[in-house]
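> @MW can you paste both from yesterday?
MW: sure, first one:
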Amino acid sequence: MTQGLVERWQLAKFLHFRESENTKPILAPSPRSDNERDLRRHLGICPKELAHNVNFLLRVHIPDGLHIVTTETRTELSQNQIVRLLLTDALEDALALRRRIQEVEPLNLYVHERMPAILVALLILFLISLGCLMGIFTLLPDMHWLFVLPILLLLPVILTGSLLVQVYVFFSWIEGRSMERALASRHKASRGPVANWVQQKLKVDLGPFPSVPWFLSTIFVLAPLVMLAYTWLPAAAAFIALAILMPVLYALYDR
């Protein structure tokens, strides 16, 4: 792997890169812009980094080397802007991740080499999505009849939303694992207490914590599982156990 490819991949988690015949320029909005959504859309910065005192990347040019200019901005986000960030940016993050998997050669190779394990993981995520659907179903008998039909119409949305959120988090996680593997120990992220405990007890490195769209995860995954636990605790415990064991088993396979 050449140094230029490593540098491009280091930027891949934060930038939407474009290929052209001669150069690879990425131009962001003017530093005077106070529109965080435009900056986020152009630069691919994670939502959690859109807080106060953020260093936004303003210009990147990658022909043969690497050049970054940064500036600091402080803004107050209104409630409407926050809602847009929570919804619109989640979709943009997912599309950017899909593009990186397709276009970043080391990541694409990593995914293809581990496709059997990834397919098994996706099957487990689909089962967890069915558990989220069960959480809604189990509450239907206790609902007023006026709410039953709207909830039934929303069931496909809940199933699809829970699956897509889980798939995004999973691929964000394996992207971090593949990046660390390619960059060796030079850019190893710090581990959380749970990952450190698993590494000490099971000798398994779970890798860096993935990017999680918490708002959508709460709506489509956490809330339905809580509803399922309220009405059918053993089933909820089984699905939660699947969600915990899946990354551990994948990490065992991938070490």
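MW: second:
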Amino acid sequence: MDRQIAVPGRPHVADDVGMDAKGSASSETPRPGGEAHERIRPLADSSYETAPSSRHAALDGRVRSINLPPGWPWSSTVRQRIGLVTLVVDDYDEAIAYFTQRLGFALVQDTPVDAGKRWVVVAPRGAGGSGLLLAKAADERQRQAVGAQAGGRVFLFLYTDDFERDHAAFEERGVVFVEAPRLEPYGTVAVFTDLYGNRWDLIEPAGSDGGGSF
């Protein structure tokens, strides 16, 4: 029997669950590997509050505020963060060269593991612990994912405290921007592609005042 997971404000949709012959939501949706999606239910106890400076506010005028039910395992004492995001690459050294020389990232770690594999981590200057794990594609399926991890959508968001400085520096170093800079309610932004074609936002958040807001 499938386990119910409550996700704030997330109703059931056809993408989340399977549909039977009558169009009703079935209890499980097979994944490519055969396992089933866990079913998703919205939390009843949620509210909305205005957040004019947020990107979500620019889209729909509101951002969800969650009131967790009693006994919820997460609380204000829990501290979590996303440390690394895997970026699948064709070659370790060419990826290191791109991120350190074109984008100015730091090479945080480059440690041999086994069978030609390496643990390679790069990170923006001042990233505060987050970074990219550069993972060399090991088979055909992984090679097909190189440059296409987000299916053509913007994959990663590089925040900066000075858009003009970094945009000019990136262009000088040969970074390819696919659009002119634009001013949005959430900040100044332009999309660029990395050496494999992954799309990135270079963004200075609105009201950053030298980086204080991020």
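> thanks! Residues 1-29, 43-61 have pLDDT under 50 and may be disordered.
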